[in-house]
Amino acid sequence: MAEADARSRRVVTLVSALAGLAMLAAGVWSLAGTRSFAAFANFGHHEHFLHDLGAFQIGIGVMVLLALIWADALATALAALFVANTLHVVNHVIDLSHGGFAWQAWALAAVSVAVAVALVLRVRQLGSVLGAVSVSTEPTLERFLRQKTVNVTTYRADGTPRAAPQDR
Q1: Would you tell me how many other CB atoms lie within 10 Å of the CB of residue 146?
Q2: Structure confidence by residue, pLDDT tens digits, 106-141
Q3: Are 74 and 122 in contact (CB under 8 A)?
Q4: Model confidence over 28-54: pLDDT tens digits?
Q5: CA 7/CA 15 separation, integer angstroms
Q6: 3-state DSSP call for residue 145?
Q7: What is the distance between the alpha carbons of residues 74 and 159, in angstroms, rounded to a whole number?
Q8: Whole-number Å distance between alpha carbons of 123 and 146
Q9: Is residue 59 part of a domain?
Q10: I need a surface site. Which of 16, 72, 111, 135 has the fewest CB within 10 A?
Q11: Residue 119: domain span
């Protein structure tokens, strides 16, 4: 059973990595080569929408790849949203001559700033532990799995706490 589980994990990891990389590649292609991407996909060429398509494909690729190494779904989603939306802001600034309004870029930029703040706060909530942490074999230690440090207090035989070295 353990071998089947390991094989299943390898397949999921491989498919996820390849799909994430494919989304990144398609996104970069859509951003950098709008005409060739539109011809390949066999739909009309609209530079701004192809730029947006690329931004969001890159965001999806980042999300899938980060999900392989980050355990927290919210941090993963916020990071991917930040990447996609920030590229979207850049598209609006660059493509302003194609239409749209400057306020749209500013509004999208405000969203990116808010998402960045939320991501930083989320990472702090997690104690900067984004990766997966293996399970504990001792149930009483489960609550310590996501923290990076543990404050240990030792006690003397009479029950009084012993001062930590930095407290002496």
Answers
A1: 13
A2: 999 999 999 999 999 999 888 887 876 666 667 777
A3: yes
A4: 999 999 999 999 999 889 999 999 999
A5: 12
A6: coil
A7: 43
A8: 12
A9: yes
A10: 135
A11: 2-144
